[in-house]
Design brief:
Layout: H1 2-13, H2 31-34, H3 43-57, H4 62-85, H5 89-95, H6 97-121
């Protein structure tokens, strides 16, 4: 995830020349000006939050809940496969130690937070 955001930030910083991004002495609009404004939160995150809220407020019939559970498993598998397919393995291996430390640190924090929450909530 860190590689994605750092690559995205670098791409935004480096100006490219082309029909959508003219040289500084031309007066044509840039690609940023022609692009529509994007939302800060992706649509699928909003949908996930809406369905979580809906599932918390109303009780779904058992047959709907069972089908929704099956569908959510397939959608999660598809999402994880898509993440894996978008991985730039060369960039990942180039980062090496840095990415391994980040992943290890994230793992330790998640396990520690999970253990703390279990200890606090299960009494």
């Amino acid at each position: 995830m860190t590689l994605f955001w750092s690559a995205r930030a670098r791409a935004a910083e480096t100006p490219s020349r082309g029909p959508l991004c003219p040289s500084p002495n031309q007066s044509q609009p840039t690609a940023a000006a022609a692009r529509p404004k994007q939302f800060l939160i992706p649509w699928y995150v909003l949908g996930f939050a809406a369905f979580c809220l809906l599932g918390s407020v109303i009780q779904l019939p058992k047959f709907v809940a069972a089908d929704a559970h099956w569908l959510s498993g397939w959608l999660e598998t598809t999402a994880l496969a898509a993440i894996g397919l978008r991985l730039d393995l060369r960039a990942f291996l180039k980062e090496g130690k840095r990415i391994a430390l980040f992943g290890g640190g994230t793992l330790v924090m998640q396990v520690a937070l999970g253990a703390l929450l279990v200890r606090l909530l299960v009494r």
